[in-house]
Amino acid sequence: MNIDGKAWRTIWLEDGGQSVGVIDQTRLPHDLHTRSLRTWREAAAAISTMVVRGAPLIGVTGACGLMLALREDPGDQALEEAFTGLNGTRPTAVNLRWALERVRQRVQPLPPSERAAAAAAEAMAIAEEDVAMCEAIGDHGLALFQRWAAARPADRQGQPFQVLTHCNAGWLATVDWGTALAPIYKAHRAGLPLHVWVDETRPRNQGASLTAYELAREGVPHTVIVDNAGGHLMQHGQVDAVIVGSDRTTRRGDVCNKIGTYLKALAAHDNGVPLVVALPGSTIDWSLTDGLAEIPIETRDAAEVTHIQGRDAEGGIRQVLLTPEGSAGLNPAFDVTPARLVTALITERGVAPATEAGLRALYA
């Protein structure tokens, strides 16, 4: 993707693989700042503090973290320490453990002298595969959008296709392209007129801060709305489709995504608006059946609820208190949308119903 005419990815190797470069997403949209990660502990801190976030990007960052650990000490004990430390940073997104296990399995049979280079190669392979998967998701989602746009009533033909998103599942959440935003980028570049309603996505405001930032730089028409406005827009026929990402999807199609997704799914279901989930195969947890009962839900610092960050009139980035002193805050980071509320799953292998049979037809 592009920022001010320059092509970017969210993560890259620096200094011949001695460090890892990332975009510091906690400073967006007001300040584009990069950070160099030189140890696995710095990679773990970047994940836990959401310098990097989004299930696919978290996985690639974790893989790079193992590479950094093995550059420092290629022994078995150091490998396991880094694996455990990185894996414990974010419990909900399945991509992290998937990527860590993939790198560990790749390097364990090797002599210590070969492990760091093999880990680097595997981490970069995961990154390139993520880019390819996200672009394929975009192609499949574009076909869906085009079909739905063409099926609208005659008085709606020629009007922008109205899409609502929640949180950020764009290229900032992956290595490039994104998941839920990839079909939007493909549609925009294909000439399909569209407009995006961007949920602010409290408490961390990834929609207002990150999705709007991405769409603005791509030139996609969009409007930021408060989270509670989505149902109202659907009731008044102003939403043609809802598209979101996923941090973990069960084999039966239950979807765990940013908190508030479930409420959007209920509103979409009540108003006959299709809700689709865009995800790479690495986000499917084939070991789980019941998302509500089995997916661990991360609870984050209550200060994310009680405080908010923004830019002041002098251009400084500040955090301010929203609530009365002493008021408690609860901050579950994700919720689970049952498969019955999901119209379809868009994967790199095609579009499937949110059922075990539908997923297994793509991932036999």
Strand content: 15-25%
> What is the CATH architecture annotation of the largest domain?
3-Layer(aba) Sandwich
CATH topology of the largest domain: Rossmann fold
Mean of all residue-level pLDDT scores = 95
Low-confidence stretches: none
| Number of DSSP strand runs | 18
Strand order of the largest sheet: 8-7-6-9-12-17-18
User: Could you name the CATH class of the largest domain?
Assistant: Alpha Beta
Total helical elements: 12
The shape is globular
Query: What does the largest sheet look like?
Result: 7 strands, mixed
Alpha carbon gyration radius: 20 Å
Notes on the protein architecture:
A hairpin with a 4-residue loop joins strand 3 (11-14) and strand 4 (19-23). Helix 1 packs parallel to helix 3 (76-87). The longest helix has 39 residues, at 112-150. The radius of gyration is 20 Å and the shape is globular. The two termini are 32 Å apart. The chain is α/β, with parallel strands linked by helices and 364 residues long. The protein has 2 domains: 2-128, Up-down Bundle (Four Helix Bundle (Hemerythrin (Met), subunit A)), CATH 1.20.120.420; 138-362, Rossmann fold (3-Layer(aba) Sandwich). The protein contains 12 helices and 18 strands. The protein has helices spanning 40-48, 55-72, 76-87, 94-107, 112-150, 182-190, 206-218, 230-235, 261-270, 291-294, 303-306, 356-362; strands at residues 2-3, 6-7, 11-14, 19-23, 34-37, 161-165, 194-199, 222-225, 241-244, 248-250, 255-258, 275-278, 284-285, 307-311, 317-321, 334-337, 344-347, 350-352. Helix content is 40%, strand content 19%. The mean pLDDT is 95. The protein has a 7-stranded mixed sheet, sandwiched between helices. A 4-stranded mixed sheet has the order 13-10-11-16, covered by helices on one side. It has a 3-stranded antiparallel sheet with strand order 3-4-5, covered by helices on one side.
